[in-house]
Amino acid sequence: MKEEMPNSPIPVFDVNHPPIEFRELIEDVMENFEQGVPANSKRARDADLAVYTAWGKNVYGTYFKAIPSSPEHIEKFLNDMSAEVTETSSTKNINGEMVDTTTKHRLKALSTIERYLASLSYKNKLYLDAIMDITKNYQLSSGFVNPTSVRRVKATLKKIRALYRDNSQKQAQPFSLDLIEDVISLHDGSLRDKLEITLLSFAFDTMMRCSELVRVNVEDLSFDPTFRDGIVELHWSKTDQDGKGQTRYLSSQTVKLLKDYLQATNINSGLLFRSIGKNNKQLEAMHKDRVGIIFKRLGRRLSKFYSDNSVNNILSKSKIVPTEISAHSTRVAAAQALALNGASTVQLMNEGGWKSAVMPARYSRHADTKKGAMAQLHKRARAT
């Protein structure tokens, strides 16, 4: 006769108010469940939870409990994050006088607020999974409602989206290929210039994000001597944190710049793009935030060149450098250029490393407008 194993006592408690002795265990189980989650995803969700926790303690006091969340708390959090903020800054006018300028904006971007909510949804679901694992009561989920999905929170998010609808988020303006070619023509031959124009051209061709650009190694490059172009292996990206890998195309212009840059810097292995410090000292790496700073500086230089030459050069007079240049400007420009050239949404997703069609569609909507019925009408009219 088989001996029956004694049943382990199953803890029973209110899901929203677990006993103190179980809280540490719940946190340990939640941590264990995230072992296979990509480090960047976990870090981002933890950072979002930290924002929510800090906000709650500031509003409700040190005893604020972030997880499990309260729908009422989440509602107020969303409203506070979307509040209108007024800022005053002092700038000089054309007469050299200091003038106060007042600007209004929302505390957080809509995409940031939506990300906060997604992170809270994930953390609350993880919390329930941990409790079910501890109690062995896998029916708990049928009686548990994620606080981020209740009607109160959904209605609040809908209202907030309406607030932002009339003031669409600023999209990074494109650093187009013709502007890039003009920047390249202006370079002074310095080591810093070689780095910056190579980075700009490389970023356009590959459509890489700044976090991806600064991770590229020399060993990832391969050049084709016949066609003078090349390929770069992308071993990690924001949407490929498991390292499955992708390849991106390099134009003959970018390959030429790369070879000149590598020869000038004597970089033979390791990280491809490395910041240039004081006294032309080459650093060991480049921070991702430096990419946007470089692109903005190149944009200002080009804008000054066009302004200085507009009197004698009709071409310079007709060109305008975008004012909202960022690290994403090359991705936007490349997406628009590809869309104008007939690339499909799937092709855009592959070239830019997007998992969803949302961002390619947003980036290429201006190009789509230029291919629309009204644009075609005027093109035919000009041709006759």
UniProtKB/TrEMBL annotation:
Keywords: DNA recombination, DNA-binding. InterPro entries: DNA_brk_join_enz, Integrase-like_cat_sf, Integrase_catalytic, Integrase_recombinase_N, Phage_Integrase-like_Recomb. It comes from the Bacteria. GO terms for molecular function: DNA binding. GO terms for biological process: DNA integration; DNA recombination. Transmembrane segments: none annotated. Pfam families: Phage_integrase. Residues 170-378 form the Tyr recombinase domain. This is Tyr recombinase domain-containing protein.
